Amino acid sequence: MRQDCIAILDLGSENNSALAREIRGLGVYSEIYPHDITVQELRALPNIKGILLNGGENRVVDGVEIDIAGELYGLGIPVIAIDHPKAACDTMAWGDAAALKKFVFETCGCEPNWNMKNFIADQIDLIRQQVGDKKVLLALSGGVDSSVVAALLLKAIGDQLVCVHVNHGLLRKGEPEQVVEVFQKQLGATLIYVDAADRFLDKLKDVADPEKKRKIIGAEFIRVFEEEARKLDGIDFLAQGTIYPDIVESGTKTAKIVKSHHNVGGLPEDLQFALVEPLKYLFKDEVRACGVELGLPADMVYRQPFPGPGLGVRCLGAITRERLEAVRESDAILREEFAKAGLQGKVWQYFTIVPDIKSVGVRDHARSFEYPVIIRAVNTIDAMTATIEHLDWALIDRITDRIIHEVPGVNRVCYDVTPKPTGTIEWE
């Protein structure tokens, strides 16, 4: 890495990600590490210029207050603590931007060299060192993360990249066709299309627990890739669009798991590939900036995010084909109406959810017992926190009318107004 780095030691705080983003906003790279990282491990990290002990009110893990090893202060690296009165070093209050800036630049002597041009140059070098002359298989969903990974890998290793698009039956309406059109026909990428919808849905039958669903989907993805790789020569690497919130939310030694991401917690122990994950330390807005720097078209870079498990985590509980189609069709209506209202590209993420419950309603002058559709529309910068988009009531009325009349088996529409936290962006 060519960039200077400030290490944040996680003492159980909820604002580690916000702090890392604030430092990166100063033009200095920052990364979060567990509180019990050893001195030897810290010393081995490249270009560490300073250490932040991020305490605050939650500097307790499993009921025990965290102690920091005394030898940390003998590393010869400046150390400062945030809201941790027992720390044996200088302290500062959370939110003191002036003190943080002074520590980063004056105390630590960092250079503001964290930018996408340097990041891309670093990653190209690292990818070439890791891959050599071997081939890389990329899970290409067509979303922002995998698209940026594809562009980065194409720049680094060219035709050594083989893209695989798996239709697991959990994609949005028209999405498989769009992926093939854009990446194979327009961009000329080597693309293998795999229709595995029945295979995935059979594996997910009667599975209601969201963590189990994510792990099944993640593991089955790997199996599909292994099967495709056996048909090819010289595939030793699997590329993924893992980003930093995936890692942070999937838990570290100190942080509790928010949810396991299919590309973090769902990988099988007998994985047959070495992983290539060039975006794994970027937040979502940084991924988009990387895409812009790589020259990807704006409509691809700013496409709203879509989870790896797809509609599987929006068809709540055990997936049925009936509810899955209700999610797919209602989502298509929502996206179409948002586009008509001029909200496409202005609202960060919007989608529908169908829970595994039914409610009494009236249809054709008779009692009905059908599913509700829940609308979610949020805005965020880094996917770590999110606010609700306040929709116009006339728009909600139009969307509701279309869903209850055009989507079979649905008699209610609800709007989720919960920010993150306390809710996550997705429901599962």
From TrEMBL:
Annotated function: Catalyzes the synthesis of GMP from XMP.
Keywords, alphabetical: ATP-binding, Glutamine amidotransferase, GMP biosynthesis, Ligase, Nucleotide-binding, Purine biosynthesis
Pathway connected to this protein: Purine metabolism; GMP biosynthesis; GMP from XMP (L-Gln route): step 1/1
NCBIfam families hit by this protein: guaA_Cterm, PRK00074.1
Organism of derivation: Guopingia tenuis
Enzyme class: ligase
Name of the protein described by the UniProt record: GMP synthase (glutamine-hydrolyzing)
Residues in GMPS ATP-PPase domain copies: 114-303
GO cellular component terms listed in the entry, alphabetical order: cytosol
CDD domains referenced in this protein's UniProt entry, alphabetically: GMP_synthase_C
Molecular-function annotations in GO: ATP binding; GMP synthase activity
Positions that bind ATP: S141, G142, G143, V144, D145, S146, S147
EC number: 6.3.5.2
Protein's UniProt keywords contain ATP-binding: yes
